[in-house]
Amino acid sequence: MESVVDQGWADVERTYQDEGPFEIMPIAYSIEYKEKMDILRTLMKNNEKSERALKLTEDIIALSPSNYVIWKYRQEIIKELNVDLKGELNLFVEYAEENPKCYQLWHHRQVIIEKLNDPLDELQFIHDMLQYDSKNYHAWTYREWIVRHFNLWDEEIKFSDTMIKDDDRNNSAWNYRFFILTEKPDNDIEAVLKDEIEYAKQKINFDPTNQSPWMYLKGIIEKSKYKLADFADELLPFCENLQKIEPYKYALEYQLYTNESILKTLNSEKEQEQQKDICRTICSKLEECDKIRKKYWKYVRESY
Amino acid sequence: MSETFEKHKHIKYFERCFKMLPYQYTSSDTNRMTFLFFCISGLDLLGALDDVLTPDIKQKTIDWIYAQQIHPDPEIGNIGQCGYRGAPFLGHKFEPNSKETIHEPYDASNLAMTYTALICLIILGDDLSRVNKKAIIESISHLQQKDGSFSPVIFGMEYDMRFLYCASVISYILNDWSGINIDKAIDFIKKSQTYDFGISQGFGLESHGGPTFCAVAALSLMNKIDEGLKSKKDTLLWCLSRQVDGFQGRANKPPDTCYSFWIGAAIDILGGYHFLDHEAHKKFLYSTQTIYGGFAKYPEIDFPDILHSYMGIAALAIIPEKTEEIECLPQLETRLNMSKKTFDKNFPKNIFWNNN
Questions:
Q1: Over chain B, what is the mean pLDDT?
Q2: What does the similarity note say (chain A) (predicted)?
Q3: DSSP type of residue B180
C-alpha cells in the first residue's frame, strides 16, 4: 500500500478510534481506510478546510460512501474553497455505478444542483441512470424533486410513457405518471381522465396479469370527482371481455371494487342484497383464481 | 438452499459477525450500532444470546453503547445533536459514564442509531439509567421537519418515513412524546399514502414495503392507526397483494427476504397475518438461507448479509402458528422488532416506565 504519510501528512497528529476495553462489532478495516481515517479525524476536529482535506474526503468516500458525516465535511470544504461545483457532479458518476442505492450520493448531488440553481441536463442524466435500473427509487425521487424545484413538468408525461413503453411492469413509471398528472400546477384530472382510462386499458389488454395499470386505473378514477361506479358501464364489460377464456385475478379484483362502489349507491335492501350476491360470487372466483390469498377473499365474501 | 430452518448455522453466523464483520462492511462504518442490533436481537430470537455473550461481555457491550451517547455540552449547548452515534468513528474518548460531551465539529446523533442503541440496551437487560432522556427528546424535536417528517441528523439529510419511525420508537421507549408534533407526523403519513393505499417514503413517491412498515408501526405506537390511514382495509390489501411466495417490496418486483419482515410486520400490526399462505412464505425464506448460515436477499445469492439474516429470522418469528422447525423462535414484538418474550421480561425494568 502506498503510505499516506508520504503525501504530506507528516504534520498531522493522528486521532485513533477509541473502542474502549472491548471492541464491539469490529469491522475488518483495510490498512488504507484505518490510516486515512486516523488523519481525517484530526482534520475534522480542527475543521481544516483545505485542498488536501478535500482530496482525503474523496479517498474515504470511495471506501465508505455511506459515511454521511464525511459528506457533510466535504460540503463545508467545498463552500469555503469555492470548488467547481460541476466537478462535484462527476464525483457522483464515479461512485454511483457501484453504489446506485447510496442515499448520500444522491443527496450530495441534490445539494450541489440546488447550489448551482440550474437543472443543467439532469433529466437526461436521470434517464441514463434509469437505464441501469429502471426502478431505482432514489433516481425517481430525485427526478420528482428536480421537476418540482425547477418547474419542468412539460415533457414529463411523455417521459413516463417512454419508460412504460420500455417496461409496462415498471410500477415506478406508473407512479410517476400519476404524480405528474396530479401534481402539475393547474392540472385538470377530469380533462385527462378519459385518455388515461384508455391508456390503462390498452396496457391491460396487452397483459392482464400486470397489476400496475390496474392500480393506476382505479387510482386515477378515485382521484377525480367520479367514483368507480360511474364507469361501471364501460369497465365491467371490459373486464368480462378480457376473461372470455380464462379468469384474471386483477380483473376480478377490479370488478369487485366497482361492484362495491355500486353497492354504496343502492338504497333498497333488496337491491343491496342482489348486489352483495354479485360481490360474493366474485370473491368465490378470487378464492379459486388467487389461491395465495384465498383466506382473505373468503373472509371478504363472508363479511357482506 | 435448504428446505428447513437452519437454526444452528444462523447462531454460528451471528457469532462470527459479533467477533468481526468482514471488510465490505466498511462502506457502512457509521452504522455499526444497527449491525449490533441485528446481531444481538438475532441471537436473542435464536435463544442463543446467553450462550454467545457471557455476562462480562454483555456488560462491556452495554458500556460500549453508552460510550456512543452524545450528551449536552455545558458550554455551547449542542441542541438537536444529543442521542447516539453509530460507532466511535469520529475519535471521541471512550466515556461510558460521562454526563457531558464536549462538542466537536460534525459530531451529531443519528435517529436510527439512537433507536437501535435503546433496543440493544433493553435486550441486554439494562435499565436505561444512563440514557439522557431529556436531551434526546429535545433533540428529536429539532429533527422534525415542517412537513412532519424527520431527518436522521441535525445537519440536514434525507427526510423520510424511516426516521419518523425511529423517532416514534424512541419516544415510546422513553415514554415521552413531547419531542414529536404528532399532528404533523400523521399529516406526513397521510400525504405519503399513494393511490394504491401503500405508503411511500414521502409525498408523490411510489408505495414501498419499508415505509409502509415504518408508518404503520409508528401509528400503532402512537395509538393512531385509524386517524393516520386513509383506509386501513385498503392498506392491508396492498400489503397482502405483495405476497408472491415470499414478499416483494413494490408491485412487479421480485420477492426479497427483508420484505418478509417489512410487509409481514405491517400485516401483523394491521391484524391480517392469518390471511397469509405461511407454507409458501416459509419455503421462500428457507431458500434464501446460505450454506454459511444467515440469509441472502434473493435465493440465487450465495452469500449472507447481516441485515437480511436478521430480517429473515424476525419474519419467521412473526408467524403465529409455529411448525416444528421454527418452534424455537419466540413471538416477535413487531412494532419494536424484538422478541416479545424479552420485551415482556426486560421492558418493565426500563426506568422511564416503571416510575409511572
A1: 96
A2: Belongs to the protein prenyltransferase subunit alpha family.
A3: S
Q: Which residues of chain A have pLDDT under 50?
A: none
Distance CA A141, CA A161 (A): 18
Q: Confirm whether A115 is a catalytic residue.
A: no
Contact B295/B282 with Cβ under 8 angstroms?
Answer: no
Cβ neighbours of A29 in B, within 8 Å:
23, 26, 29
Predicted ipTM of the assembly:
0.96
* Domain boundaries defined on chain A: 1-115, 119-183
Specify the residue for cell string 425547477.
A150
Share of chain B above pLDDT 70, in %: 99
May I ask the CATH architecture of the domain A1-115? Answer: Alpha Horseshoe (1.25)
Contact B206 A30 (CB under 8 A): no
Q: How far apart are CA B49 and CA B105, in angstroms?
A: 37
List b or e across B199-237, with b for residues whose CB sees 16 or more CB atoms inside 10 angstroms: bbbbbbbbbbbbbbbbbbbbbbbbebbeebbeebeebbb
Report CB contact under 8 Å: A135, B250: yes
Listed in sequence order, the residues at least 6 apart from B173 whose beta carbon sits closer than 8 Å to its beta carbon are B118, B119, B122, B128, B336, B350, B352
Distance CA B281, CA A53 (A): 50
Q: End-to-end distance of chain A based on CA atoms, in angstroms?
A: 72
Q: How far apart are CA A273 and CA A277, in angstroms?
A: 6
- Identity of residue B209: G
- Angstrom CA distances, B214 to A215, B200, B218, B267, B334, stand at 22, 10, 6, 12, 11
pLDDT tens profile A71-122: 999 999 999 999 999 989 988 888 887 888 888 999 999 999 999 999 999 9
Contact A100, A131 (CB under 8 A): no
- Shortest CA distance from A292: residue in chain B: B277
B63: nearest CA partner in chain A: A20
CA dihedral A27, A33, A38, A43 (to 10 degrees): -130
Strand partners, A27: B21
| Residues B296-320 pLDDT 10s | 999 999 999 999 999 999 999 999 9
Which grid cell is B161? 418515513
Q: Do B17 and A25 touch (CB under 8 A)?
A: yes
Closest CA to A78 of A99, A106, A108: A108
Say which amino acid occupies B141. Answer: S
d(CA A290, CA B244): 11
The residues that bridge with B21 in the sheet, in sequence order, are A27
